[in-house]
Write a structure and sequence with these properties.
With about 325 residues, the protein is mostly helical. It contains 16 helices and three strands.
Length: about 325
């Protein structure tokens, strides 16, 4: 049946649909779907039936394929009914009619165009909520996940976020939040939420008068960031700095500096071969034991644990 399907004159530049992969078993299919997204997945009904339709449920829940069709040697009402219940877009039987498959192609193209238009609007809304530190972002991301446009929207938003805040590269890596580098959509969602929560702490809400101070701190996490040093560097009153900072951000100045230092330390742990004591010293911690204690207090794991391979959760 696969040979008859691949032999049809419907694949190529004219229709815009190319065969990207051919699988002969469920395990092979699931492995491929974990690493790549497809516009259409066509499954042999016999292959699905042997696994009690578990594969269909997994594909629909993974969101790595937006459209699914079943094909069969002959019409089978019960198989068609089960497929419809699980979200199958179409059901084809031998002999395959090219016009029917082409009709499905056209519906997919139309859905993709609608999704693309919606994607731009969704991205703008997501960025608005992100930059305003709005907690309603959590519900909005969940909505994007449910309507199956989340990954595309997040990828676009992440690129803009890092372009507008180039200091972010000192604390987190852009690639860690792009869908192509994430295991699945649930993890993609979790990582973006973690980025948002880190961003809110790195750049808390504040008025224009604090912008110069916060920007200086964000761009210089390895500098002397004590109140006296910053006051002298920026020529501002020391007491004014601490008083105004907590009044506007709700965060004590010393706690903010600690978070900045530890976030930079976390980046160094992940992206360099520097020893823990070297990083502690670089972040102005004279006592490595105290540095480790502060790190664990803030992020619930030790510096050494944070440096574990990627099978340990990467975020803090």
């Amino acid at each position: 049946m696969l040979a008859k399907l691949t032999a049809l004159h419907i694949w190529g530049e004219e229709t815009g649909f190319e065969i990207q992969a051919v699988c002969t078993g469920i395990k092979q299919l699931e492995a491929i779907l974990q690493n790549k997204r497809f516009d259409l997945l066509i499954l042999e009904n016999q292959l699905v039936a042997e696994d009690n339709y578990r594969v269909l449920k997994n594909v629909k829940s993974s969101k790595f394929c937006n459209h699914i069709a079943l094909c069969s040697l002959e019409a089978d009402f019960e198989s068609a009914r089960k497929g419809i219940v699980l979200g199958v877009d179409d059901y084809f039987t031998l002999p395959f009619e090219e016009r029917l498959i082409l009709s499905l192609f056209n519906r997919i193209k139309s859905d993709n165009e609608d999704a693309q238009n919606s994607s731009s609007e969704f991205t703008d809304k997501l960025l608005e909520l992100f930059f305003r530190n709005e907690d309603s972002l959590y519900d909005f991301v969940e909505h994007l996940y449910k309507v199956n446009v989340m990954s595309d929207v997040i990828d676009k938003a992440v690129k803009v976020i890092f372009e507008k805040n180039d200091w972010l590269d000192l604390y987190v890596n852009e690639k860690d939040y792009i869908g192509a580098n994430v295991y699945d959509t649930t993890e993609h969602k979790s990582r973006f939420i973690a980025l948002f929560e880190s961003y809110k702490l790195l750049l808390p809400n504040h008025s224009e008068m604090l912008s110069v101070i916060i920007e200086y701190i964000l761009y210089n996490p390895e500098s002397d960031l004590r109140q006296k040093a910053i006051s002298e560097e920026l020529r501002i009153n020391k007491s004014y700095l601490s008083t105004v900072f907590i009044a506007q951000t709700g965060i004590r100045f010393v706690d903010y500096i600690t978070y900045i230092k530890l976030m930079r330390a976390a980046w160094l742990l992940r992206n360099t071969d520097m020893k823990v004591n070297e990083i502690a010293k670089r972040m102005d911690y004279k006592d490595v034991a105290y540095f480790s204690k502060q790190f664990k207090k803030n992020f619930s794991i030790t510096p050494s644990e944070y440096r574990l391979p990627d099978d340990y959760h990467f975020e803090i």
